[in-house]
Amino acid sequence: MAEALKPRDALPEETQPMRFARSAMGRLRRAERGVTAIEFVLTLPFFLAFVFMIFELGMMFAAQEMLDSAARDAARAIRIGTYAGSSYASTVKAAICSNVTSNGFNLIQSCSTSLKLYVSASGSGSPTGVGFTKLTTAPVTAGVITEAQGTLAAKTDVLLELGYSFPWLIGVGSGSTLLTSIIVFQTEPY
Q1: Phi/psi of residue 174, each to 5°?
Q2: pLDDT of residue 174
Q3: What's the pLDDT score for residue 119?
Q4: Which backbone phi and psi does 7 adopt, to 5 degrees?
Q5: How many CA within 13 A on the CB side of residue 128?
Q6: Tens-digit pLDDT profile for residues 58-102
Q7: How far apart are CA 42 and CA 15, in angstroms?
Q8: Which of 22, 53, 68, 137 is the most exposed place for a label (fewest CB within 10 A)?
């Protein structure tokens, strides 16, 4: 009598690797060890990028607030006649740079060189305020505003613009974002 064939022996030789692969895949599907570590490694870069992005945006908003505050202070000084004529830019920038430092920490790096001041001024005219229609904002070239200074006098309509290229720590795109603060006002009849 012929010997009974075992199921394993009944299969041709080339299908045994398939059986091994099938059983290995089944073991992998059932194995849970190490899954948490793999998930952690896969999600950590996205989590860290998100945390750094929040930090970066917070720093940018703080720098924008400092820039707005400095523009208000400079506009107030110009409005009451502290600065007049046409050679005031370096004095205004020095005053602004001293005001944006808080407890020795300055969010506007290299303030005296990186902060750009643009002042457009026009006589008030008749009726009062007609000069505002002649004011223009600063031209922007390669992410930096062009500096200019108009002649300041009593009863002059003024557009004051401060610009700063905020450098990104993470280096996205060009690596900086232009922050601006614009204030329009009329000087007092001093």
Answers
A1: -75, -15
A2: 59
A3: 93
A4: -55, -35
A5: 7
A6: 989 988 998 999 999 999 999 998 998 888 989 999 988 888 877
A7: 36
A8: 22
CB 70 within 8 A of CB 96: yes
CA–CA distances in Å: residue 81 to residues 29, 188, 190: 78, 7, 7
- Element containing residue 106 per DSSP (H, E): strand 105-106
Beta bridge partners, 96, equal none
Please determine, for residue 43, whether its predicted confidence score (pLDDT) is greater than 90.
yes
Look-up: residue for tokens 């006649």? 81
Q: Establish if 12 belongs to a structural domain.
A: no
- pTM of the prediction? 0.72
Q: Is residue 21 part of a domain?
A: no
Contact between 124 and 130 under an 8 Å Cβ cutoff? The reply is: yes
Spatial separation of the C-alpha atoms in residues 159 and 117, rounded to whole Å? 11
pLDDT, one tens digit per residue, over 144-159 is 889 998 889 888 899 9
To which residue do tokens 């223009």 refer?
Answer: 136
67: Cα separation from own chain's centroid? 13
Per DSSP, helices labelled H in the chain are 7-10, 16-30, 35-79, 89-99, 111-114
Structure tokens at 22: 């099938």
User: Is 139 inside any structural domain?
Assistant: yes
Q: Are strands 105-106 and 101-102 parallel, antiparallel or unpaired?
A: antiparallel
Closest CA to 114 of 70, 169, 163: 163
Residue 17 lies in a domain: no
How far apart CA 160 and CA 78 sit, in angstroms, is 9
